[in-house]
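Feature request, filed as a ticket because there's no other form

It would be nice if the structure record came with a short human-readable summary line next to the tokens. Right now we just get the raw output. Example of a typical job, pasted below so the devs can see what we mean:
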Amino acid sequence: MPKDISCNEPYSGNTADQHIFALTLWDIASWQITDKTLSEQKASFRPESLKGQTGIHAGLPTLQRGAVWRARQIELFWDSLLRSFPVGSLLLAKKITGQDTRPSPVTGSAPEASYHILDGQQRSNAIAWGFYLPEQPEKNGKGKYTFPPTEDTAGKNKAAKSMLWLDLMPFDDDHPNRPSRTSRKYLFRLTTTAHPWGYSVDDNASRLPYHDIENFRKTYDEVVSSSNEGSGNKTYHVHASVPQQAVQPIPMGLLMKYAKNSTNGISIDWKNLLENPWIAFIDDWLTCRNKIAGTADKDSSVTLSKWLEDHQEKIIKWLSPLPHIIIPAINCSTGFYDENNENSNVDNAALIFERINNQGSPISQEELQYSLIKAYFPAVEKTINHIEEKQKGLPTGEARLVRLGVRAALLTVKPANNPDREILPYKEKPPFTHIETETIRSWFKGNDKEQNVIKEQNVIRAYFNKNDASNDSNDCLFKAIEWIENQLVYRHNGKKEPYTLHPYLRSSIAWSSPDVYLWWMLLAEAFNYGELDASEKKRILAISTVIHWFGYKNKKSDLANDLIKEIRRKQNDNTPVEIDAFKLPQPGTDNNLMAFLAPPDALLDALGKGLNARFREASEGKSPLLAYNPASLLTDEKAQSYRDIVSILSQKTELLVYVQRDYLAELAVGYDPSQRSLWENHNRPWDYDHIVPSNFFDGTGSSKSDFIKAYYLCKCLQQSIGNQTALSFSENRSKNDKSPSSLSDEYWSNAFCYTKKSPDELKTLKAGFTCEKNDFRTSPKNSGNAANDKAKAFAEAALNRMIGIYRKWYDDLGVRDVFDTSSGS
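Raw output as currently delivered:
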């Protein structure tokens, strides 16, 4: 048993005088969870040597970034705690004057704090997740479970974002269900809003296989009473979910709720724990899950309640290290805190945070700058929270949004609705295309003698005005975001202009082409946040998506900044800003800014000629073309300028999101594309499905002679967007590798939603995709190595569909009119 670790120095009676605090897990958990039981436990579990230490309650200062630890880090952290591994110390400072305390990522509330956490936020959060337990479920008259409302009377979402579970079953080294290839001894399972079914048990906490996720969904539907049943876009709430890959899971917070201090260190109030409604809910869930999955083996047939009754001593042994864990917290206030100099305290706290976080979990310069801005200007977070509340989410991450807001403030030439708002003098060359961290620090640390620095600070503060939280008229960032959402973004429950962008694409632009999004923000103010007509919206979206999708990576900023210069120049000349005046330079090799956007007909003609030529060569038995991209089809010398557009277009899956916006908007209710982590591991609620499956082209164990001469040509088109469609996750997995001939009419209608065709025409379109695996392999039917009609029909169908999707975007938004493309065709 590990010994208690206490402070090296005696308790002085004044916590502010101590250099080191010794904290139990219960002490740290109570910083975020205000619960009577936890409060009583905290006092009970405090070692005798620490009884005099009181009043330590720490929170997150505004300058802190958000929670960044992933599931694997939280799960492995708790594995380390139960194994008595060292987990490091925390760094605290006396509450920094002028810094608000951030809401807890665990509970959503912001309890009063006497200290601020400068280092150790992620570990503190992980500890709190182990003590967190949502309100208990209740069984309704229909035999399903209901959970307390996820919104309070003010409409604020209070649903659990994550839950930490402990799988009690496969712990013993010789247990047959114990996972292999893991360093874990204790199998903690985290469920999240992106993965309410949990993660795999490997050390990477990777995504679950499809069949597990599908079985989770079926179980949820059977056990939980849902308010949106039958809507086609069910939300799976974390507080109503049980991790799928766990034999006997129990919320860690439930175990900790009934933990008691005893002579042996820890005990459990088993009677009350077993009577808690969570146990009955989990028993019913596991029974239903095992029935659906067909896994009613010896282990899974044992209920959780029975397992708990039979293994109480074992569980106590597992939990026994927890009361003896003492985490040191260094009080750095004595080193820099000055009650008479608020600015100095903020400066020092910001510097400490910056230096520590450059050594811990990776933090981007953008996040670091956001923390720095919040250190000197905490009110900016209120603006962000206000936008998130009103818009039901953010268009991009907090740090990215604030950085764009700072740039918009400094670039404004003519303020809308408030001519007295402070701005910087006009310069023809837009300043601050890139802002260094030290520059931001100098702006906010400036004094009255540095008028230019004070000027920039005041301009930024004026843009993020939050003096009156009930009045949005002077909040420029809020109004800009509201304008963008109303004018350019497609909503499933609002206006449905058929040319506006799915929220995923709006967020993609903010993440990958931020200067384009900045142009939108400046346009909002240039038009006084007023309504645009359809032609103006289309032109903005045409220019934006051309840059975002087809601008060369290192040239997107140059293209967008030219548009920003145009706004600033016109405003400085007191000339009306007109959308028609915005043009993109003609693409081509001379300016090397973007791919040459050939008209759809010209592109299809050039690719079609090449396709016919390649198949003719294949039918003549010539050596196969090693085509890895449809651009290989461009055989005509005059069409070589199309190579870049074809290469980019063939892989641009975001065009599928554009043409399928209606289907995806309704599918993605509750999906927040502003959180880029939800893009990882296919966390979005749709996949990109191959109509003709990839296994038709699986060459494992085969030689080149097994395939037709045009095999590689067909394969590169099979991998293009011409053979892909955005499909709900569950539909995609249920489709799996079905033959295209067995797909439903609804599937085909979705796949060809970009074109208005009659049923007979649609039948012709899908005919090319209804091929079979053997159509791409040699056989007597295929005349040895020659290409056959079915393979060619597929290649033509995929090519025509790729250009059809491109044509939908090109014609919808009037792309031809934003620059002259005729000279290259």
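Something like this underneath would help us a lot:
Residues 1-14, 152-157, 228-233, 821-825 have pLDDT under 50 and may be disordered.
The first strand starts at residue 20 and ends at 23.
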